[in-house]
Amino acid sequence: MKKIFFIPTVLIVLLTACTKDLEQLPITDKELSKFLTTEIEVEEYVVSTYASLQTNGLYGLYLPAMGEIPSDNTYDEVPANDGAIYGDMDEFKTIPQNGMIADNWRASYVTIQRCNVVLNRIENVPFRIAITKNARMGEMKFIRALIYFNLVQLYGDIPLAIDETKDPNFYFGKGRQLVAEIYNQITKDLTEAIQVLPTTTTQAGRVIKTAAQALLGKVYLTQKKFTDAKIQLDAVIASNAHSLLPSTADIFSLTNENNREIIFAIQFASGVNSNTEGSIMYQQFAPTGLISGAKGHNLPTRELYNKYTITDTRRGNYIALTTGNVPFNNKLKRPTVPADGGSDIVVLRFADIVLMQAEVETELGNITIAQAALNRIRNRAALANTTATTQIQLRDAIELERRLELVGEGYRWFDLLRTGKAITTMNAWFTAENKLITVTPKFLLFPIPQNQIDTDPTIKQNEGYN
To answer: What is the CATH number of the domain that holds 133?
Structure first.
């Protein structure tokens, strides 16, 4: 089986009626309270949890944009388009009513709830093979940690739910938990997942051990726990489960998906199930006129495109130009049907691990090791070794290389937050672009969606958005 095709098969049915006949559940639906009692049912619900990662609020559309468009990597071609949800984020005018953050928040907690349901019930379900049961628990802990990691970087303090929500009223009045508490839970989930996840999988799209190690390494790096990050990143590298592909042209090819460089990716496929398993991202993130219905959201900036030298193989392979010389993301491959893209959305890949290794070793003062890691990425792109020799120079060189290598993958805004450069970098960028936009500390976090605050007033708004 080449892929997991994420077709949700579990429906929560809430019915009220005045006669017994009307209380009958359709035979094609399953009532959650009576579900997840067998291995087959657990597997169905696990698949539905993976499926939720494909939704627009997460990796189906919005999350990669939220990690890029506030940065200097990408911009919105027509800011007023689609209710300005992208344009406002691009110009630092995001309001609590923004539909993108509302969908992201909702999809995140729907996914967390699905993880919690499995983890709450799986212990009492008999499995034919014990390691399969353990693997499913590890997958759910990884996904829950991934979602919380995204949320805590985007919004700061957030509600924390690690138990199945059987009564929504139970969570009202609890407000938001501190960032430190969220990171503690993320670390706990990933540490436990590493213990039970398999090293390989025969089903593309499943979480494996190195994915949890890679994500935990990134979590530690974000917290500036460099020694802890090094342990996890070194483990991924030493596993030999992944490697850099020789050519940058092959990484995102539709005929080479789930290759050795890809550690974890959200699976999409075009032309399947009446075009329901494809992604709309290419259409949304293509310059207007490039393809039918193109929206021009989240386009690479000309400033970034110009940073690629002529000899850099990523120029063209990662970012290409339209006939009108407009840069666009060429990691997403053009589909036959505009809204049915087949490109998987990469969450973790080995090039990111190598660049994080370079960053960690730089911060630990291991300059030679950091240079060697950085040069692996540069040499693969047909570039000479770095000329950076000091810690300060290496920090700048690694930052640039991350932009050039990881553009479009949803990392740049998080990188700026992690390194504390978001305000200075963006204000300098807007000045160079002659745009009268000033970024202040308020904008380092997105607003909490207004509908969440309206529902539960104990969830307080981020400072400056009231």
So the answer is: 1.25.40.390
